[in-house]
Amino acid sequence: METTKVVYNVDKRAIPVPEGANELYVQPLPGRPAFDFAEYSPEEAERTGSSEYSYWRSVWRNFIKKKSAVAMLIVFAILFVFTFIAPQISKFDVFNLRIDDSLMFTRPNSTFWFGTDNLGRDYWSQVWHATRTSVILAVSVSTGQILLGVLIGLVWGYVRSLDRFFTELYNFINNIPTIIYMTLIALMVGKTTVVMGVSMILFGWLGTARNIRNLVFMYRDREYNLASRCLGTKTWRILTRNIFPYLVSVIVLRMALAIPGTIAYETTLTYLGLMDISTPSLGILLRNARSFFLNYPYLLVFPAAIVSTITITFYLAGNAFSDACDPRNHL
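Structure (tokenized):
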């Protein structure tokens, strides 16, 4: 008995195979071809493969969940903005304060809101001008230290041929107390704020670079980085796209701790006479107040309270932001 072979087209209708045909075929649907060529577009492929995930949007979403940290950040912002407002509402100009022995150690009152110092000068204008100077100096120095430390740490940890060089450089600088370097620079170059600020950057990157180097060692040989190197990805792209996101939390935390630490270090340098005292800063005010604290505590309380506020706000906000920057905490 003769049988007829059939095939089925896309709408599942049986189509008899013509007699003598060597191959089976599928009759195309009426009005359109059975197959179309798919065109390839790199831009479309990139857009299709990408997700709506945004690293910094996720960081901000995680950070604002911690209300206490947001409050601390707002407190610091208000404090810094007020350093520009305070001179405008002050009754005295910080650049034209006159020495008046009759007003020495006047306690806070309606005229002198923070009292006067040992020379009879208004303390309110000095404190807020010193706060602005110290905050700008601390942020500038800390930013410079972190940037230099991160750059050196990335290269130090990833390029193994440079490991010995940076290790010896680290040991050479770190084995000599930093205060010796600062003393030599102050005596040979100068004690100005700019000179000492640059010096603090040049000798303050060590800790950050060492920390970043150790972390890069952990991540450089992971599977996705090995695959990137095999595909010919440039070293700088691997560092910035594959490794750097895992370092952001550490960098932010070190930045948050570096700012109050810089203010404390500036106070130490001022106390030792290695900073120019012509420009008021919190360190200078604390240095001058140490001799009168027992009899006139307000001279120490006001600048110390501001330093404490800066330290606490940056520590709490920095910790929260550090946690928010960790990709492992992103859902």
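The two ends are 67 Å apart (CA to CA). The chain has one domain: 59-329.
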